[in-house]
Amino acid sequence: MTDMLRYAKLDTLCLVRSAYFLTFSVLFSAGFYVMFTMVAQDTLSESPLFARDYMLSMSVSGAFFGALNGAGIRLGTERGEGWARQVLLTPLSGAAYLGAKALTAWLATLPAAVVVFALGAFANDVSMPAADWLAALGVIWGASLVFVLAGLAVGLVAVGESAQYISLGVFFPLAMLGGLWFPLDDFPAGLRHAADFLPTRSLDQLATLVTPGGGDAPVLRPVLVLVCWGLALAGVVLSRSRAVVLARV
Q1: Which of 75, 85, 100, 101 is geometrically suited to a Cys-Cys bond with 7, CB 3.0 to 4.6 A?
Q2: 124: nearest Cα among 181, 191, 193, 41
Q3: Degrees (nearest 5) of the Cα angle 217, 219, 220?
Q4: Helical spans, DSSP H, in 17-143
């Protein structure tokens, strides 16, 4: 456990210093939030709660890419470069190595959410009781474990640069069809219905439900969707978490 935590600490420090992570997870989410709530709000929604709702959506979007980057892209790259094979020659076990990657990816979901929350509070005057701020952030961070599992699954399936392409191929459709970037109201009915079964849409709905005026939609459906995605992705991760897979270049 100590070795895993020590490796996770080093891995996290390397990740947060990465320009790629800061650009696509934090700055991308913050930029989208500023652009569509302060510059071009009328193009998306006239709802008085739009600044708060979009804050939650972009926080989920940033957390999603942070997890894919922290687990999927970096794990696939390290496997491709032979770094994972070298790690397995040390006292750190394969399970501990994957545990450290998962912890790093989970921590990587926080910076974008915190920055976008700060923009909502200080730039758009989003106001909620302190308990609701903490509840929304806690829901996003806690349920982002599903995104961490998605990242690990990508990193254990793809090797080298292909992990980046697959991560982007997962991120863009799920974020867009999940309604994180643009409201689903203008989407065709079929896509709106399909969005209800996506983890991105479900996590966004859960975060909205814990805020004031978040609606009275049932909580059970998005929870079940996240649980199902989590179980399916955990199955992929467990089936690919063998040492021979980690050492494969």
Answers
A1: 100
A2: 41
A3: 125
A4: 19-21, 28-34, 50-67, 74-80, 83-87, 94-107, 110-122, 130-143
Question: For residue 247, which phi and psi values (nearest 5 degrees)?
Answer: -80, -10
Q: What is the DSSP letter of 41?
A: G
pLDDT digits (tens, 9 = 90+) for 179-192: 999 888 878 888 88
pTM more than 0.90: yes
Q: What is the pLDDT of residues 43-102, one digit of tens each?
A: 667 777 889 999 999 999 999 999 999 888 999 998 888 888 888 888 888 889 999 999
Phi and psi at residue 55, in whole multiples of 5°? Answer: -60, -45
Taking the C-alpha atoms of residue 95 and residue 74, their distance in angstroms, rounded to an integer, is 16
> 112 and 29 in contact (C-beta within 8 Å)?
yes
Which amino acid belongs to residue 25? S
3 state SS of 22? helix
